[in-house]
From TrEMBL:
GO terms for biological process: hydrogen sulfide biosynthetic process; sulfate assimilation, phosphoadenylyl sulfate reduction by phosphoadenylyl-sulfate reductase (thioredoxin). Catalyzes the formation of sulfite from adenosine 5'-phosphosulfate (APS) using thioredoxin as an electron donor. It catalyses: [thioredoxin]-disulfide + sulfite + AMP + 2 H(+) = adenosine 5'-phosphosulfate + [thioredoxin]-dithiol. Belongs to the PAPS reductase family. CysH subfamily. The gene is cysH. This is Adenosine 5'-phosphosulfate reductase. The lineage of its organism: Bacteria, Pseudomonadati, Pseudomonadota, Alphaproteobacteria, Hyphomicrobiales. The active site is at C240. Residues 51-220 form the Phosphoadenosine phosphosulphate reductase domain. Its cofactor is [4Fe-4S] cluster. Pathway: Sulfur metabolism; hydrogen sulfide biosynthesis; sulfite from sulfate.
Amino acid sequence: MAAISSVLSAPAPKHDKLKALGILALNGMFDEMDAEAVLRQAVDELLPGDIAMVSSFGADSAVLLHLVSLVDKNLPVYFLETGKHFVETLDYVETLKQRLGLTNVIALYPDSADLARFDPDGTLWETDPDSCCHIRKTEPLEDVLSGYGGWVTGRKRFQTAERGVLPHFELTSDDRIKVNPLAYFTNEDVEAYKARHDLPEHPLYGEGYKSIGCAPCTSAVAEGEDPRAGRWRGRDKRECGIHFDFNGSIAKPVSQSSLHLFKDGAFKADPWKAWAEGDEPADVRYTHVPVSVFVEHRAAFLASPHPIGLQVNPGEKVEDIEGDLARFSSVAINFRAFTDGRGYSSARLLRERFGYEGELRAVGDVLTDQIPFMRRCGIDAFVVTNKATREALEKDALAEVPLYYQPIGERHEVPAGTRPFLRRPE
Protein backbone atom coordinates (compact mmCIF):
# COMPACT_ATOMS: atom_id res chain seq x y z
CA MET A 1 0.00 0.00 0.00
CA ALA A 2 2.71 2.49 0.98
CA ALA A 3 4.70 1.61 -2.10
CA ILE A 4 1.81 2.48 -4.36
CA SER A 5 1.18 5.76 -2.52
CA SER A 6 4.83 6.74 -2.87
CA VAL A 7 4.77 6.01 -6.58
CA LEU A 8 1.71 8.18 -7.07
CA SER A 9 3.02 11.11 -5.06
CA ALA A 10 6.60 11.11 -6.33
CA PRO A 11 7.65 14.19 -8.33
CA ALA A 12 8.04 12.22 -11.54
CA PRO A 13 7.19 13.47 -15.02
CA LYS A 14 3.46 13.57 -15.60
CA HIS A 15 1.90 10.36 -16.88
CA ASP A 16 5.12 8.41 -16.61
CA LYS A 17 4.85 4.64 -16.76
CA LEU A 18 5.19 4.14 -13.01
CA LYS A 19 2.32 6.46 -12.24
CA ALA A 20 0.08 4.83 -14.81
CA LEU A 21 1.03 1.41 -13.42
CA GLY A 22 0.24 2.67 -9.92
CA ILE A 23 -3.28 3.48 -11.04
CA LEU A 24 -3.62 0.05 -12.64
CA ALA A 25 -2.42 -1.56 -9.42
CA LEU A 26 -4.96 0.36 -7.37
CA ASN A 27 -7.76 -0.78 -9.64
CA GLY A 28 -6.69 -4.38 -9.05
CA MET A 29 -6.64 -4.07 -5.26
CA PHE A 30 -10.35 -3.69 -4.59
CA ASP A 31 -13.39 -5.85 -5.18
CA GLU A 32 -15.97 -4.42 -7.51
CA MET A 33 -18.43 -3.63 -4.72
CA ASP A 34 -15.89 -2.40 -2.15
CA ALA A 35 -16.98 1.23 -2.47
CA GLU A 36 -16.18 2.32 1.08
CA ALA A 37 -12.66 0.87 0.92
CA VAL A 38 -12.03 2.63 -2.41
CA LEU A 39 -13.13 5.94 -0.91
CA ARG A 40 -11.04 5.42 2.25
CA GLN A 41 -7.99 4.60 0.14
CA ALA A 42 -8.43 7.81 -1.81
CA VAL A 43 -9.12 10.08 1.17
CA ASP A 44 -6.76 8.59 3.77
CA GLU A 45 -3.89 7.12 1.77
CA LEU A 46 -3.75 8.28 -1.83
CA LEU A 47 -4.54 12.01 -1.58
CA PRO A 48 -4.94 12.99 2.09
CA GLY A 49 -6.03 16.62 2.31
CA ASP A 50 -5.80 16.91 -1.48
CA ILE A 51 -9.13 15.51 -2.67
CA ALA A 52 -12.71 16.76 -2.89
CA MET A 53 -16.06 15.36 -3.97
CA VAL A 54 -18.39 16.74 -6.61
CA SER A 55 -22.08 15.93 -6.18
CA SER A 56 -25.16 16.81 -8.22
CA PHE A 57 -27.42 15.94 -5.25
CA GLY A 58 -29.43 14.01 -7.80
CA ALA A 59 -31.32 10.74 -7.83
CA ASP A 60 -28.47 8.48 -6.64
CA SER A 61 -26.34 11.00 -4.78
CA ALA A 62 -27.41 9.92 -1.29
CA VAL A 63 -25.42 6.66 -1.60
CA LEU A 64 -22.02 8.25 -2.18
CA LEU A 65 -22.74 11.08 0.25
CA HIS A 66 -23.56 8.47 2.90
CA LEU A 67 -20.19 6.83 2.24
CA VAL A 68 -18.54 10.24 2.63
CA SER A 69 -20.25 10.65 5.99
CA LEU A 70 -18.69 7.34 7.08
CA VAL A 71 -15.20 8.22 5.88
CA ASP A 72 -14.89 11.98 6.53
CA LYS A 73 -17.86 14.24 7.24
CA ASN A 74 -15.65 17.29 6.62
CA LEU A 75 -14.54 16.26 3.13
CA PRO A 76 -15.16 19.21 0.75
CA VAL A 77 -18.32 18.44 -1.25
CA TYR A 78 -18.87 20.80 -4.17
CA PHE A 79 -22.35 21.39 -5.56
CA LEU A 80 -22.64 23.21 -8.87
CA GLU A 81 -25.39 25.77 -8.31
CA THR A 82 -26.05 26.46 -11.98
CA GLY A 83 -29.07 28.66 -11.40
CA LYS A 84 -31.15 26.16 -13.37
CA HIS A 85 -31.85 23.45 -10.77
CA PHE A 86 -35.24 22.16 -9.72
CA VAL A 87 -36.42 23.69 -6.44
CA GLU A 88 -36.71 20.11 -5.19
CA THR A 89 -32.97 19.60 -5.76
CA LEU A 90 -32.06 22.68 -3.71
CA ASP A 91 -34.30 21.41 -0.89
CA TYR A 92 -32.66 17.98 -1.18
CA VAL A 93 -29.22 19.52 -0.64
CA GLU A 94 -30.32 20.79 2.75
CA THR A 95 -32.06 17.50 3.61
CA LEU A 96 -28.93 15.42 2.99
CA LYS A 97 -26.60 17.87 4.72
CA GLN A 98 -28.65 17.63 7.92
CA ARG A 99 -29.41 13.92 7.72
CA LEU A 100 -25.81 12.84 7.04
CA GLY A 101 -24.05 15.47 9.13
CA LEU A 102 -21.99 16.80 6.22
CA THR A 103 -20.13 19.89 7.41
CA ASN A 104 -18.36 21.13 4.28
CA VAL A 105 -20.85 21.35 1.40
CA ILE A 106 -19.84 24.25 -0.86
CA ALA A 107 -21.97 25.77 -3.64
CA LEU A 108 -20.17 26.85 -6.82
CA TYR A 109 -21.73 29.54 -9.01
CA PRO A 110 -21.07 30.49 -12.65
CA ASP A 111 -19.17 33.69 -13.35
CA SER A 112 -21.65 36.57 -13.53
CA ALA A 113 -19.66 38.27 -16.30
CA ASP A 114 -19.84 35.11 -18.45
CA LEU A 115 -23.58 34.89 -17.90
CA ALA A 116 -24.05 38.54 -18.80
CA ARG A 117 -21.98 38.12 -21.96
CA PHE A 118 -23.13 34.74 -23.25
CA ASP A 119 -26.47 34.02 -21.60
CA PRO A 120 -28.06 37.34 -20.64
CA ASP A 121 -31.63 36.08 -20.97
CA GLY A 122 -30.98 32.60 -19.53
CA THR A 123 -31.98 30.70 -22.68
CA LEU A 124 -28.58 29.50 -23.90
CA TRP A 125 -29.57 25.95 -22.97
CA GLU A 126 -32.13 25.99 -25.80
CA THR A 127 -29.71 26.87 -28.60
CA ASP A 128 -26.36 25.63 -27.31
CA PRO A 129 -26.51 23.29 -24.31
CA ASP A 130 -22.79 22.50 -24.59
CA SER A 131 -21.82 26.13 -24.04
CA CYS A 132 -24.43 26.48 -21.31
CA CYS A 133 -22.91 23.51 -19.45
CA HIS A 134 -19.41 24.86 -19.98
CA ILE A 135 -20.26 28.26 -18.49
CA ARG A 136 -22.44 27.00 -15.64
CA LYS A 137 -20.59 23.80 -14.72
CA THR A 138 -17.22 23.13 -16.32
CA GLU A 139 -15.54 26.51 -15.80
CA PRO A 140 -16.59 27.01 -12.13
CA LEU A 141 -15.53 23.45 -11.32
CA GLU A 142 -12.19 23.67 -13.11
CA ASP A 143 -11.31 26.82 -11.18
CA VAL A 144 -11.81 25.00 -7.87
CA LEU A 145 -10.47 21.55 -8.75
CA SER A 146 -7.21 23.00 -10.02
CA GLY A 147 -6.29 23.23 -6.33
CA TYR A 148 -6.75 19.50 -5.72
CA GLY A 149 -4.83 16.42 -6.79
CA GLY A 150 -8.02 14.45 -7.33
CA TRP A 151 -11.77 14.31 -6.95
CA VAL A 152 -14.54 11.83 -6.21
CA THR A 153 -17.47 11.28 -8.57
CA GLY A 154 -20.67 9.25 -8.37
CA ARG A 155 -20.49 7.85 -11.91
CA LYS A 156 -21.47 4.24 -12.54
CA ARG A 157 -20.94 1.82 -15.40
CA PHE A 158 -24.63 1.02 -15.88
CA GLN A 159 -25.64 4.62 -16.55
CA THR A 160 -24.53 4.92 -20.18
CA ALA A 161 -22.62 2.95 -22.79
CA GLU A 162 -19.84 5.54 -22.61
CA ARG A 163 -19.38 4.77 -18.91
CA GLY A 164 -19.38 1.03 -19.42
CA VAL A 165 -15.60 0.72 -18.94
CA LEU A 166 -15.36 3.02 -15.93
CA PRO A 167 -12.69 1.94 -13.35
CA HIS A 168 -12.45 2.86 -9.69
CA PHE A 169 -9.44 5.09 -10.33
CA GLU A 170 -8.66 7.18 -13.43
CA LEU A 171 -5.57 9.18 -14.33
CA THR A 172 -6.89 12.11 -16.35
CA SER A 173 -5.11 14.19 -18.95
CA ASP A 174 -4.80 17.13 -16.55
CA ASP A 175 -2.69 14.94 -14.24
CA ARG A 176 -5.34 14.50 -11.58
CA ILE A 177 -6.97 11.34 -10.25
CA LYS A 178 -10.69 10.70 -10.50
CA VAL A 179 -12.11 8.26 -7.99
CA ASN A 180 -15.35 6.42 -8.78
CA PRO A 181 -16.29 4.32 -5.71
CA LEU A 182 -19.65 3.28 -7.19
CA ALA A 183 -18.32 2.38 -10.65
CA TYR A 184 -19.55 -1.23 -10.47
CA PHE A 185 -22.85 -0.60 -8.69
CA THR A 186 -25.97 -1.54 -10.66
CA ASN A 187 -29.28 0.25 -10.27
CA GLU A 188 -30.40 -2.63 -8.04
CA ASP A 189 -27.31 -2.19 -5.86
CA VAL A 190 -28.04 1.51 -5.49
CA GLU A 191 -31.65 0.87 -4.51
CA ALA A 192 -30.63 -1.84 -2.04
CA TYR A 193 -28.06 0.45 -0.42
CA LYS A 194 -30.58 3.28 -0.04
CA ALA A 195 -33.11 0.90 1.53
CA ARG A 196 -30.54 -0.70 3.84
CA HIS A 197 -29.50 2.67 5.26
CA ASP A 198 -32.95 4.29 5.05
CA LEU A 199 -31.64 7.16 2.94
CA PRO A 200 -34.05 9.93 1.91
CA GLU A 201 -35.11 9.87 -1.74
CA HIS A 202 -34.86 12.81 -4.10
CA PRO A 203 -38.40 14.26 -4.26
CA LEU A 204 -38.58 13.82 -8.06
CA TYR A 205 -37.31 10.24 -8.19
CA GLY A 206 -40.75 8.75 -7.61
CA GLU A 207 -42.08 10.76 -10.54
CA GLY A 208 -39.80 8.99 -13.01
CA TYR A 209 -36.72 11.23 -12.86
CA LYS A 210 -33.93 8.66 -12.65
CA SER A 211 -31.08 11.06 -13.47
CA ILE A 212 -31.57 14.63 -12.35
CA GLY A 213 -29.67 17.67 -13.58
CA CYS A 214 -30.79 21.17 -14.51
CA ALA A 215 -34.55 21.56 -14.84
CA PRO A 216 -34.70 22.71 -18.50
CA CYS A 217 -32.62 19.74 -19.69
CA THR A 218 -34.08 16.94 -17.54
CA SER A 219 -37.22 14.87 -18.14
CA ALA A 220 -38.73 11.71 -16.69
CA VAL A 221 -37.84 8.35 -18.23
CA ALA A 222 -40.11 5.48 -19.17
CA GLU A 223 -39.85 1.96 -17.84
CA GLY A 224 -36.89 0.20 -19.44
CA GLU A 225 -35.22 3.36 -20.72
CA ASP A 226 -31.59 4.23 -20.02
CA PRO A 227 -31.60 6.08 -16.66
CA ARG A 228 -29.96 9.07 -18.35
CA ALA A 229 -32.30 9.08 -21.34
CA GLY A 230 -34.11 12.02 -19.77
CA ARG A 231 -31.00 14.19 -19.86
CA TRP A 232 -30.89 16.47 -22.93
CA ARG A 233 -33.65 14.36 -24.48
CA GLY A 234 -33.67 14.53 -28.26
CA ARG A 235 -30.14 15.93 -28.48
CA ASP A 236 -26.85 14.26 -29.36
CA LYS A 237 -25.49 14.92 -25.89
CA ARG A 238 -24.85 12.53 -23.02
CA GLU A 239 -22.51 14.38 -20.67
CA CYS A 240 -22.43 17.92 -19.30
CA GLY A 241 -18.69 18.20 -19.90
CA ILE A 242 -17.18 18.02 -16.41
CA HIS A 243 -16.27 14.36 -17.01
CA PHE A 244 -14.75 14.89 -20.45
CA ASP A 245 -11.11 14.96 -21.18
CA PHE A 246 -10.55 16.70 -24.47
CA ASN A 247 -9.21 13.39 -25.75
CA GLY A 248 -12.45 11.46 -25.23
CA SER A 249 -15.71 11.05 -23.37
CA ILE A 250 -14.23 8.92 -20.59
CA ALA A 251 -11.07 10.21 -18.98
CA LYS A 252 -8.05 8.03 -19.65
CA PRO A 253 -4.31 8.45 -19.37
CA VAL A 254 -2.78 10.39 -22.24
CA SER A 255 0.77 11.25 -23.05
CA GLN A 256 1.87 14.74 -22.11
CA SER A 257 3.50 14.91 -25.53
CA SER A 258 0.02 15.06 -27.09
CA LEU A 259 -0.71 18.34 -25.31
CA HIS A 260 0.61 21.47 -27.02
CA LEU A 261 -0.79 24.42 -25.07
CA PHE A 262 1.71 25.72 -22.48
CA LYS A 263 0.06 27.97 -19.91
CA ASP A 264 0.54 28.68 -16.20
CA GLY A 265 3.71 26.60 -16.14
CA ALA A 266 2.40 23.37 -17.66
CA PHE A 267 1.20 21.73 -20.86
CA LYS A 268 -2.58 21.49 -20.80
CA ALA A 269 -5.53 20.22 -22.81
CA ASP A 270 -6.69 22.90 -25.22
CA PRO A 271 -10.42 23.40 -25.93
CA TRP A 272 -9.77 25.93 -28.71
CA LYS A 273 -9.53 25.20 -32.42
CA ALA A 274 -8.69 27.23 -35.52
CA TRP A 275 -11.25 28.61 -37.95
CA ALA A 276 -11.75 26.27 -40.92
CA GLU A 277 -13.21 26.78 -44.35
CA GLY A 278 -16.92 26.03 -44.25
CA ASP A 279 -17.41 27.09 -40.62
CA GLU A 280 -20.58 29.08 -40.00
CA PRO A 281 -20.17 32.32 -38.01
CA ALA A 282 -23.40 31.75 -36.10
CA ASP A 283 -22.47 28.21 -35.02
CA VAL A 284 -18.77 28.11 -34.14
CA ARG A 285 -17.68 28.00 -30.52
CA TYR A 286 -14.24 27.94 -28.90
CA THR A 287 -12.80 28.86 -32.29
CA HIS A 288 -10.14 31.49 -33.07
CA VAL A 289 -11.62 33.58 -35.85
CA PRO A 290 -9.22 35.55 -38.10
CA VAL A 291 -9.58 39.33 -37.92
CA SER A 292 -10.61 39.52 -41.58
CA VAL A 293 -13.35 36.90 -41.09
CA PHE A 294 -14.65 38.61 -37.97
CA VAL A 295 -14.83 41.98 -39.73
CA GLU A 296 -16.68 40.44 -42.68
CA HIS A 297 -19.26 38.68 -40.51
CA ARG A 298 -19.18 40.99 -37.49
CA ALA A 299 -22.94 41.16 -36.95
CA ALA A 300 -23.30 37.37 -36.90
CA PHE A 301 -20.43 36.90 -34.48
CA LEU A 302 -21.71 39.59 -32.12
CA ALA A 303 -25.21 38.10 -32.16
CA SER A 304 -23.97 34.58 -31.46
CA PRO A 305 -24.12 33.44 -27.81
CA HIS A 306 -21.13 31.10 -28.21
CA PRO A 307 -17.67 31.83 -26.75
CA ILE A 308 -15.23 32.70 -29.53
CA GLY A 309 -11.61 33.82 -29.87
CA LEU A 310 -9.71 36.02 -32.31
CA GLN A 311 -6.71 35.11 -34.48
CA VAL A 312 -4.38 37.90 -35.61
CA ASN A 313 -2.42 36.93 -38.71
CA PRO A 314 0.56 38.91 -40.04
CA GLY A 315 -0.71 42.01 -41.81
CA GLU A 316 -4.06 42.09 -39.99
CA LYS A 317 -4.69 45.14 -37.83
CA VAL A 318 -5.99 44.71 -34.30
CA GLU A 319 -7.05 48.34 -34.51
CA ASP A 320 -9.90 47.16 -36.76
CA ILE A 321 -11.59 45.33 -33.89
CA GLU A 322 -10.63 47.55 -30.94
CA GLY A 323 -14.24 48.20 -29.97
CA ASP A 324 -15.15 44.50 -29.99
CA LEU A 325 -12.26 43.07 -27.95
CA ALA A 326 -14.54 42.25 -25.01
CA ARG A 327 -16.29 39.71 -27.28
CA PHE A 328 -13.22 37.43 -27.31
CA SER A 329 -12.33 34.97 -24.57
CA SER A 330 -8.91 34.35 -26.12
CA VAL A 331 -6.70 36.02 -28.73
CA ALA A 332 -4.16 34.02 -30.75
CA ILE A 333 -1.32 35.86 -32.49
CA ASN A 334 0.10 33.96 -35.44
CA PHE A 335 3.89 34.04 -35.71
CA ARG A 336 4.39 32.57 -39.18
CA ALA A 337 8.15 33.06 -39.32
CA PHE A 338 10.97 33.69 -36.88
CA THR A 339 11.97 36.83 -38.80
CA ASP A 340 8.48 38.38 -38.77
CA GLY A 341 8.15 40.67 -35.75
CA ARG A 342 4.67 42.05 -36.41
CA GLY A 343 3.15 39.72 -33.81
CA TYR A 344 5.05 41.46 -31.01
CA SER A 345 3.57 44.80 -32.04
CA SER A 346 0.08 43.33 -32.10
CA ALA A 347 0.56 41.90 -28.60
CA ARG A 348 1.73 45.23 -27.21
CA LEU A 349 -1.17 47.08 -28.81
CA LEU A 350 -3.65 44.63 -27.30
CA ARG A 351 -2.20 44.79 -23.81
CA GLU A 352 -0.91 48.34 -23.51
CA ARG A 353 -3.11 50.49 -25.71
CA PHE A 354 -6.39 48.58 -25.77
CA GLY A 355 -6.21 47.03 -22.28
CA TYR A 356 -7.09 43.47 -23.31
CA GLU A 357 -6.97 41.27 -20.18
CA GLY A 358 -7.97 37.85 -21.55
CA GLU A 359 -5.75 34.98 -22.64
CA LEU A 360 -3.19 36.10 -25.20
CA ARG A 361 -1.48 33.18 -26.91
CA ALA A 362 1.24 32.72 -29.50
CA VAL A 363 0.66 30.19 -32.29
CA GLY A 364 2.63 29.20 -35.39
CA ASP A 365 6.42 29.25 -35.38
CA VAL A 366 6.94 29.49 -31.61
CA LEU A 367 10.61 28.86 -30.77
CA THR A 368 12.67 28.90 -27.59
CA ASP A 369 14.48 32.18 -28.23
CA GLN A 370 11.21 34.02 -28.90
CA ILE A 371 9.29 33.15 -25.76
CA PRO A 372 11.04 35.56 -23.34
CA PHE A 373 10.32 38.42 -25.76
CA MET A 374 6.74 37.25 -26.26
CA ARG A 375 6.21 37.26 -22.50
CA ARG A 376 7.54 40.79 -22.23
CA CYS A 377 4.88 41.84 -24.74
CA GLY A 378 2.07 40.33 -22.66
CA ILE A 379 1.66 36.89 -24.22
CA ASP A 380 0.81 34.36 -21.50
CA ALA A 381 0.10 31.12 -23.42
CA PHE A 382 2.01 29.28 -26.16
CA VAL A 383 1.00 26.57 -28.61
CA VAL A 384 4.25 24.65 -29.05
CA THR A 385 5.05 21.98 -31.61
CA ASN A 386 8.85 22.42 -31.75
CA LYS A 387 10.57 19.64 -29.79
CA ALA A 388 13.48 21.73 -28.47
CA THR A 389 11.13 24.49 -27.35
CA ARG A 390 8.94 21.97 -25.59
CA GLU A 391 11.88 20.47 -23.71
CA ALA A 392 13.08 23.92 -22.64
CA LEU A 393 9.64 24.80 -21.27
CA GLU A 394 9.29 21.48 -19.45
CA LYS A 395 12.71 21.96 -17.81
CA ASP A 396 12.16 25.69 -17.19
CA ALA A 397 15.39 26.26 -19.11
CA LEU A 398 14.56 29.25 -21.28
CA ALA A 399 17.35 31.73 -21.88
CA GLU A 400 17.06 34.98 -19.93
CA VAL A 401 17.13 38.37 -21.63
CA PRO A 402 19.05 40.65 -19.25
CA LEU A 403 19.70 43.39 -21.82
CA TYR A 404 17.28 45.21 -24.12
CA TYR A 405 17.13 48.51 -25.95
CA GLN A 406 13.43 49.34 -25.75
CA PRO A 407 11.33 49.42 -22.57
CA ILE A 408 8.00 47.61 -22.51
CA GLY A 409 4.69 49.01 -21.34
CA GLU A 410 4.37 50.23 -17.78
CA ARG A 411 7.44 48.37 -16.52
CA HIS A 412 10.14 50.53 -14.99
CA GLU A 413 12.84 49.28 -17.32
CA VAL A 414 16.11 50.95 -18.19
CA PRO A 415 17.29 50.13 -21.74
CA ALA A 416 20.89 49.02 -22.15
CA GLY A 417 23.29 51.87 -22.85
CA THR A 418 21.06 54.54 -21.31
CA ARG A 419 22.96 57.33 -19.54
CA PRO A 420 21.44 57.57 -16.05
CA PHE A 421 22.06 61.32 -15.76
CA LEU A 422 20.05 61.95 -18.95
CA ARG A 423 17.01 59.90 -17.88
CA ARG A 424 13.83 61.75 -17.12
CA PRO A 425 12.65 61.44 -13.52
CA GLU A 426 9.82 58.93 -13.05
